[in-house]
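Ticket reopened. Same input as before:
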Amino acid sequence: MEDGQDAKIVVDGLNAWYGSVQALRDVSLTILDRKVTAVIGPSGCGKSTFIRCLNRMHEVAPHTRVQGKVTLDGQDIYAPGVDPVTIRRRVGMVFQRPNPFPTMSIFDNVAAGLKLGGLAPKAYLADIVEKALRQAALWDEVKYMLKRNGTALSGGQQQRLCIARALAVEPEVLLMDEPCSALDPITTLAIEELLQELSREYTIIIVTHNMQQAARVSDKAAFLFMGEDRTGFLVEYGDTKEIFTNPKDPRTEGYITGRFG
Amino acid sequence: MNNRPSYLRRKITNYTMMGLCGLATVIAIGVLLLVVGYTLANGISFFNLEFVTQTARPLGEPGGGMRNEILGTMVLVGLATLFGLPVSLLAGAYLSEFGGGRVGTAVRLVADVLAGVPSVVIGIFVYVLVVVPMGTFSALSGGIALAIIMLPVIARTTEEMMKLVPTTHREAALALGIRRWRTIVSVVMPGALVGIVTGSMLALARIAGETAPLIFTALGNRFGFSGLNQPIAALPIQIWRYAVSPYNTWHEQAWAASFLLVMLVLIISVLVRWFTSRLNH
Amino acid sequence: MTRALLEKQLQEIQDEVLELGGMVERAILGSIETLKKQDLEMAQLIITEDVAINQKRFHIEERCIQLMATQQPVASDLRQIVAMIHIIVDLERMADHAEGIAKITLLIGKEPLIKPLIDIPRMAQKGVEMLRRSLEAFTQRNVEAAKGISEEDDEVDALYDQVYRELLVLMLQDPRIIQRATYLIWVAHNLERIADRVTNICERVVFTATGHMVEMNVSKY
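Engineering reply: fixed in the latest deploy. New output:
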């Protein structure tokens, strides 16, 4: 327990823009190492934008801007001279809809980050792929069809394939942007179980608009909200148990009890 | 319910419009069938193995074929592909991935204008820029002219096809720590491959039948292939020459050559179909 | 296996309920022991230890609430949690009865007992045994066992009757002992209430296993 209380990512005064529209204002919080942190809040409050700022994916979209400080193990990821590619290898990402590369086999999908990232230790590639698929609890289902196309899998399997793909590059942090929104409830629970397993080794930050899911899977929860100007800001951040039984802010209470938001 | 006037009127409008649509379809397909059918019907009787394997005989002598012209067209299309395809693909990739700004808009506009320029103008353009300085009509200049015609078609197809690749695939790759260029080459382009190949093959089919730009560049050549810096024979030129001539035997040869060209387009179209369906499954 | 986290936490909370049960057992038996030995120090100890039992109860209740808030349990999982919340209240009340007995010990002080204690320790033994088996029935969702245990409350009631009558006779014989005899009746009454609370636990066993809320063996006291 004690080692799990270390800070992994420290966000300090984060602001983000799309063009002239400000999406996030002055978000500051500390993400704990090897814990599951849930980011909740109403649609459009900047949840996805927030996590995209943590692996420098926000700047991939045109006309975007980030201001503020984000440190990963004490290193400022927005410092001049920092290559976003190296940050993205340490902070992996799983997206809302399963998005395996349609032109690649299951094996190649998992190996993509290593092969195309120029990190491929050819000899160990098969081992790494197997390990990643095992971590994603997919190995037993696909071990005899690694050459098959990734899109041949079911939705839940595809999402686990995407998780395996992200794990194969051995990141330290895993960002998940509503990873279950396209999945059925049973598959969703399976993915949630997986998160519990993964949180032993990885720091996980999951965006979800499903409050029950946030309550189920996370240790810490951050509640983002937006004002009249549609700019998101952090309302409350704390232990999930506390947030869901005794929130400090009436807006959090209103949102999690379904009264508004 | 049926006696409500508005309902009746809508019903009549519906049938009228459907009838008009059907008519338009029949006209469009009818014209196509007429052209293809007429060409095939006329051409097939003069088409035989000799036509493909033999060279032309002197006027009045029966038989002979268009071996040189077929070869010439293949060389020209090959050259055009060699010059045009890489540039087109890179231009298309640029427009799709980085074409959001002013440069992209400008390039897109230029490509669209180029696509609309009559092919004869392109022929004159290449004549001035290549043929005149070289001092001779040549296969090379013909290839360049055809490449220029190809360029906007393939570039724009490539762009559109690459844009169809979902952003999430690019983001997935970038989020894995894969560099931008590698993402484009290894994720986006393979994802758009079917479309790019289809577009390229259709562009090939189109330039294979181009006549006007070749008159100013490749010129045509009654004899066999004699180097890239020399005039070269081409099917469309020969069809045109024979068709406007007063001789019956030449007319027959022109029909056979037309048949060959139509078949070529047909075969390419079928190949495209086969290729796309195979890759999509 | 899905919902591993929920299962794990349910198990942990149930284990804590059993721990609380053990604490209550020790309090009951200890209180009778102090009474027998008239050990005032030990009585004081039992009174202070009740605080720990109360804290444990609040701790378990809080965990149940957090589990409901975060894991959205339904059906048998939900029934189990609700049952546990009820059971810990009963357990805590039982401990209060034990504390009551310890306080009576203090009231009696060093004055000699008016009679040797035979049926009262027997009531305590019976009550504790019923408690232990009711919690076991809860962990096994054993409806039959629960019904059987609640029937046994009659035995405790019978013992109470006997003690009560015996003490009445003694009081009639010698009015000077009325106060001390009344203390012992209170003790017996506390033990009778403890056994009644066991039948409440048995009701929760049936509820957890079947979803039915049934009233069991309404005590005549």
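The interface with chain C takes residues 186, 189-190, 193, 196, 212, 215-216, 240-241, 244-245 of chain A (CB under 8 Å). Residues 2-97+172-256 of chain A form a domain with the Rossmann fold fold (CATH 3.40.50.300). Please confirm and we'll close it.
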